[in-house]
Structure formats: structure tokens, C-alpha cells
């Protein structure tokens, strides 16, 4: 027994390898998503392809090392611990954190002018050490053809680098502590399925059984061949492309049906691969509620909703849905939370005591940081209360249904607070500070919190102690911020943000235009927006009650919560395809057929990751597109 336990622990050497590989991971994520913005960024998906890719490269290297120096090779548990460190690094360097943070830090100083009056209404309210104030140090950031490692640049960035790295570390450590608190209930008691970990768990297995499944390789061949043809088309246009989508809107040109708007039907292999492990009622609910939102748009056109310009307020409905999901999750966990509180006073060495202290100290540190930004204390506390409720909802979604997407664009705490109180209720410095938190509040795709919870589930699956996986995650939480900032600045000074993907300037402009609208037009409570948020909350609660009361109930509240988002609009077609395929398999062959064919869908995922990922890195590395 002790031998089995020792082989499932994570050695210091494995954590060191993870630390050494994290900057490489951050480098590629920044390069692919922020600078090139082509080839499909991985940080916005539940299963980050760069993490799986690098884990398998490391695994192959370890298999070769094992032949000559068996003790030096990483074990399965260690590979998966390093994989978790990759995920945290990718999320922080990803599309919804650092790639927003760096542009919003640099944008005000560079674009301040007499026309926008930022010299009067914005720059004096930016505290020292949070943004770069030396405009000469920003010149090469915008135009490129330089290096970040010049003394001028390093000196100008030293305090923003340290301040925001500390903020990110606190943010991630609080999330990890919350996951540690709920993990026992969500892993051992509720026995949630955690579909996202299926592929890395299978790939890291010491046996070769998974790789001998012919259906796995059939899936790899299909997705890999199609992606290869389409990547070759980008290099040689004479090669015909295999179309993987179309827009329904082009066929609905008559009023009121044209109110359906942009409705692409896309074949996305990672959505189909992951979707096969999602429960049937979730798959059905995703595309059903997407069309429910579309029908609301058509209905608005029919009845004339000019007085409600954002009807049907799908972002607000989704926001209410996420808040309801988090409260439902906490209600289902209430007995465990009560037990945790009791444990604090009985067992002084309990890991729960450390987790609760981390939450308290971390939230205190985040509040102090926000106070330094100029945000009123009550606003900061309210912001992070809503923020972590959303994080709990996302983690529960991923653990229970493995949804490939959970973006919640423009529905986070700053939007909710602004709708509830209006900009006139906040001080001017609070508005400036809230704008800077847009880097964690714009969307919730590149999100480390569910990855932390899934890592604790992996520890349980490989029969390792949770603490052996918690230590590597703590290290990753502390280092992911500085590594991501470094990677972004390294690329920016080399290429120049004005020469990189336009999304960089867009994020900076979006952040401060949002602030300018708050400060220029003092608004009150937006009753309509709050009403639709409340409506989304109540619908989600109602769907949950229907699910509890009626066995035949086909609608899942999580499907409603995630279906009002931009990303579901992009991916609903893949959910429909996998729902139809899974329904057919279960009708014809039952659970035996499901177990037999799951290798095919994991193969589709593998083809997307390894063939598509190789094309992406080769294309970017050699400048093919």
C-alpha cells in the first residue's frame, strides 16, 4: 500500500519541470492569441489544447528516458500535476486576463489627448505603480522593433509588473482555497462526472490499451485530415477547402425572421468530442435555449421593441442564470459547508482551516488592492462577492456537465453593479478602478478556477493525496502572473502592438471608452437590465425545481444559463450534431454502444489537438500565415 501511495505522489523534480515549462506555455499562448490571433487560441476552451499537447510531448520524452534512467522519468500523477500547472499558466496568459490587462495599462497614457480630456478626468486618478507613466518607454511597445530588456523599458514596467503579479496571485489562491473547501462534496459525495479530464487521464495511462482502440484512430484521422486540408488551403488557395459551417441568417431574409441575426452552424471538433461526455439533457438544452433566445429576438421584431434596444437582453438573462447556478450549488453543498465550519474548531491541523484563512486573507488583500486603485471598500467587497459566485457557478458547470464553453460576456460584477446602482452612485475614482478590473470581468473563458477543481478530481482518480497536487498548483498560482506578463511584453516590444492583431488596441479602447461613458453620462439604476437579470435568475431556479420534481423534465438550468452567450451562438451547431449522434447511439446500442464509441470522440479531440495544433505552430513558426 505504501509503495502504491509513493508512486502517486508528486516529487519536487516534477514541480521544477512544470515551472521551467510554464514560460514556454505562456510564450506560445501570447504568440498565438494576442500577436498573431490566428490558428485558434486554446485558452478560451475548457480543454486547453496547448496543455494537452505539451503534456504528451513531455510524456513521450519521459518514456524515452525511462528506458535508460527509470528513476528520472515522471510518473502518471506527476505528468498530470504538470498538466495542471500548464492549464493555470495558459488561463492567466489567455484571452480574458493578461491579453486585456496589458492593453488597458498602456492605452490611457499613449492615447490621452485634449479631445478626450483624459489628462483631466483619467490620468490623475491612476495610482502610481499601476500603469506605465513614461511615454517614451511605451513608444517601442506600440511600434515594435525593439526589446523589452532595455533598461528604460524594465524600469518603467517594474512596479506595474509586481503589483499586477501580486493581484493575480491573490486572485488565483482564493479560487484554489474555495475549490479545496468544496472538493470533498463535489468529488466524493456528489460524484460529479468531470468530463473535461477524460482525454488527459486516458493519454497519461501507463498501459497502451487506449491507443490500440481503432475507433480512436478513426476519429484522429477524420478530424486531422479535414483540418490538414483546410490549413493547406490557407497556404495554397488552389486546394479546395472543406467547409465546416454556414450562417442560417443568410437564408432568413424576410422580416421578422431576419431578426434572428448572426446564427452560424459550425462543426467544431473539440466541442463535438467533449460534448459526447455531456449529459443528454444538457446537450438538448444548449441548442434549445439558444433558439429560445433567437425566438425572443424575432418576437421583439414582431411586436416592435424599439423602447428596449437590447431586447431580449440575453447577456443579462445569462448573468442572472449564473448567479442562480452558484446559489443552487452552494445550497446543495450546505451540509458539507456546515461540517467544514465545525471542523475549524475541532481539528487545528485541518486543511480546511488553511483554506478558510486563505480566503479571508486573500479577499482582504484584494480589497486593499482595489482601495489603492481608488475603489470604495463596499464596491470592492460587492465586486468580489459576485465575482466568486460566478467562479463557483463555472466550476460547478464544468464538474457536472463538462461544458466546452462558459464565456458570460459582459455579464460580470461591474456590469451588474452599474445596472443596479448607476454610475452616479459611485465616486469618480471608483469608476476608474472598476474600469481596470475589466481584465478579469469582461468574460469568463480563460478561467483557472474550474481547472483547479478538475485537478483535485484527477488526484482522486489516480489515487494520490490532494495535497500532493495542491502544492504544484500553489506554485503555478504564484508564478503564472509574472510569466504571462513577461511573455506579453516580450512579444509586444518585438512586434509592436500597432503591428499585431487589432484585438490588442481594441481591448484598451473598449476598457476606457466604457469608463468615459460612465463618467460623462451619470446614470441611475437601469431597471430594465436588472429586471432581465432577475428574470434569468428566476427562470434558472424554476428549471431546477422542474428538474427535481419531474423525472421526465427535459430542460437543464445550466443549459439555459450558458445559452445566452456569444460563444454558444458560435458553437450550438456542434452541440446539436453530438446530441443527435449520441441519441442515435443510445437508441440503437444503449450504454454498451456509448462505452464502445467514446474512443471515436476522444479521437476527434486528439486530431484537433495534435494535428490542428501542429499546423498552428508550424504555420506561425515559419510565417505561413
What is the percent of helical residues?
Answer: over 70%
Number of helices: 25
The total beta strand count reads 2
- Enumerate the spans where pLDDT stays under 50 for 5 or more consecutive residues: 1-5
Overall pLDDT confidence = 92
The H-and-E topology, N to C, reads as: HHHHHHHHHHEEHHHHHHHHHHHHHHH
Q: Measured on Cα atoms, how large is the radius of gyration?
A: 24 Å
Strand order of the largest sheet: 1-2
- Percent of sequence in beta strands: under 5%
Described by the principal axes of the CA atoms, the overall outline is globular
Structural class: mainly alpha
Q: Biggest sheet: strands, sense, closure?
A: 2 strands, antiparallel
Kindly, what is the distance between the CA atoms of the first and last residues, rounded to a whole number of angstroms? 54 Å
Report a brief summary of the structure.
The chain has 625 residues and is mostly helical. The protein contains 25 helices and two strands. Helices cover 71% and strands 1% of the residues.
Topology, element by element:
Layout: H1 2-7, H2 12-36, H3 49-68, H4 76-93, H5 98-111, H6 118-121, H7 135-143, H8 151-189, H9 198-203, H10 214-235, E1 245-247, E2 264-266, H11 269-275, H12 280-303, H13 314-332, H14 334-344, H15 351-373, H16 377-401, H17 413-421, H18 428-436, H19 438-441, H20 448-461, H21 466-495, H22 503-520, H23 527-549, H24 557-562, H25 566-621
Antiparallel strand pairs: 1-2
Helix pairs in contact: 2-4, 2-21, 3-4, 3-25, 4-20, 4-21, 5-22, 7-21, 8-15, 8-16, 8-20, 8-21, 10-25, 11-25, 12-25, 13-16, 13-23, 15-16, 16-20, 18-22, 20-21
Amino acid at each position: 500500500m505504501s509503495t502504491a501511495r509513493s508512486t502517486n505522489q508528486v516529487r519536487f523534480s516534477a514541480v521544477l519541470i512544470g515551472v521551467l515549462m510554464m514560460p514556454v506555455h505562456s510564450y506560445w499562448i501570447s504568440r498565438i492569441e494576442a500577436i498573431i490571433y490566428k490558428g485558434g487560441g486554446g485558452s478560451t476552451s475548457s480543454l486547453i489544447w496547448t496543455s494537452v499537447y505539451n503534456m504528451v510531448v513531455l510524456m513521450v520524452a519521459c518514456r524515452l528516458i525511462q528506458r535508460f534512467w527509470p528513476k528520472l522519468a515522471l510518473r502518471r500523477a506527476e505528468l498530470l500535476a504538470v498538466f495542471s500547472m500548464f492549464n493555470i499558466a495558459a488561463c492567466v496568459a489567455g484571452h480574458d486576463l493578461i491579453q486585456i490587462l496589458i492593453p488597458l495599462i498602456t492605452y490611457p497614457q499613449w492615447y490621452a489627448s485634449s479631445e478626450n480630456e483624459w489628462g483631466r478626468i483619467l490620468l490623475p486618478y491612476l495610482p502610481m505603480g499601476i500603469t506605465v507613466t513614461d511615454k517614451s518607454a511605451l513608444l517601442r511597445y506600440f511600434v515594435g522593433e525593439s526589446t523589452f530588456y532595455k533598461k528604460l523599458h524594465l524600469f518603467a514596467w517594474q512596479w506595474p509588473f509586481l503589483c499586477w503579479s501580486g493581484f493575480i496571485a491573490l486572485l488565483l489562491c482564493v479560487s484554489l482555497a474555495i475549490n479545496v473547501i468544496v472538493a470533498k462534496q463535489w468529488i466524493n459525495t456528489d460524484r460529479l462526472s468531470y468530463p473535461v479530464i477524460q482525454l488527459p487521464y486516458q493519454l497519461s495511462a501507463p498501459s497502451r490499451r487506449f491507443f490500440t482502440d481503432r475507433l480512436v484512430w478513426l476519429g484522429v484521422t477524420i478530424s486531422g485530415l479535414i483540418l490538414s486540408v483546410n490549413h493547406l488551403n490557407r497556404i495554397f488557395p488552389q486546394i479546395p477547402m472543406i467547409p465546416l459551417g454556414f450562417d442560417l441568417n443568410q437564408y432568413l431574409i424576410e422580416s421578422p425572421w431576419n431578426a434572428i441575426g448572426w446564427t452560424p452552424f459550425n462543426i467544431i471538433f473539440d466541442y463535438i468530442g467533449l460534448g459526447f461526455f455531456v449529459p443528454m439533457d444538457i446537450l438538448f438544452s444548449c441548442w434549445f435555449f439558444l433558439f429560445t433566445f433567437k425566438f425572443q429576438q424575432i418576437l421583439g421584431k414582431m411586436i416592435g421593441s424599439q423602447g428596449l434596444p437590447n431586447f431580449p437582453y440575453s447577456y443579462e438573462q445569462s448573468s442572472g442564470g449564473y448567479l442562480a447556478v452558484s446559489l443552487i450549488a452552494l445550497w446543495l453543498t450546505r451540509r458539507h459547508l456546515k461540517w467544514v465550519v465545525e471542523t475549524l474548531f475541532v481539528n487545528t491541523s485541518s486543511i480546511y482551516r488553511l483554506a478558510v484563512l486563505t480566503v479571508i486573507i486573500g479577499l482582504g488583500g484584494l480589497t486593499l488592492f482595489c482601495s489603492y486603485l481608488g475603489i470604495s471598500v463596499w464596491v470592492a467587497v460587492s465586486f468580489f462577492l459576485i465575482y466568486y459566485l460566478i467562479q463557483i457557478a463555472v466550476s460547478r458547470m464544468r464538474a457536472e456537465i463538462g461544458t466546452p464553453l462558459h464565456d458570460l460576456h459582459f455579464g460580470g460584477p461591474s456590469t451588474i453593479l452599474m445596472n443596479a446602482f448607476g454610475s452616479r452612485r459611485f465616486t469618480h475614482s471608483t469608476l476608474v478602478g472598476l474600469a481596470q478590473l475589466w481584465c478579469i470581468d469582461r468574460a469568463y473563458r480563460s478561467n483557472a478556477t474550474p481547472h483547479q477543481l478538475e485537478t483535485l478530481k484527477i488526484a482522486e482518480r489516480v489515487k494520490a493525496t490532494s495535497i500532493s497536487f495542491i502544492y504544484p498548483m500553489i506554485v503555478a498560482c504564484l508564478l503564472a502572473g509574472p510569466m504571462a506578463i513577461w511573455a506579453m511584453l516580450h512579444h509586444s516590444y518585438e512586434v509592436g502592438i500597432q503591428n499585431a492583431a487589432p484585438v490588442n488596441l481594441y481591448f484598451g479602447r473598449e476598457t476606457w471608452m466604457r469608463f468615459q461613458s460612465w463618467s460623462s453620462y451619470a446614470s441611475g439604476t437601469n431597471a430594465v437590465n436588472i429586471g432581465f437579470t432577475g428574470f434569468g435568475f428566476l427562470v434558472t431556479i424554476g428549471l431546477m425545481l422542474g428538474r427535481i420534481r419531474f423525472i421526465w423534465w427535459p430542460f437543464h438550468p445550466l443549459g439555459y444559463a450558458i445559452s445566452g452567450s456569444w460563444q454558444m451562438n458560435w458553437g450550438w451547431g456542434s452541440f446539436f450534431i453530438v446530441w443527435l449522434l449520441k441519441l442515435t447511439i443510445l437508441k440503437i446500442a444503449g450504454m454498451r454502444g456509448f462505452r464502445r464509441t467514446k474512443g471515436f470522440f476522444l479521437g476527434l479531440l486528439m486530431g484537433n489537438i495534435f494535428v490542428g495544433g501542429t499546423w498552428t505552430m508550424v504555420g506561425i513558426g515559419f510565417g505561413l500565415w
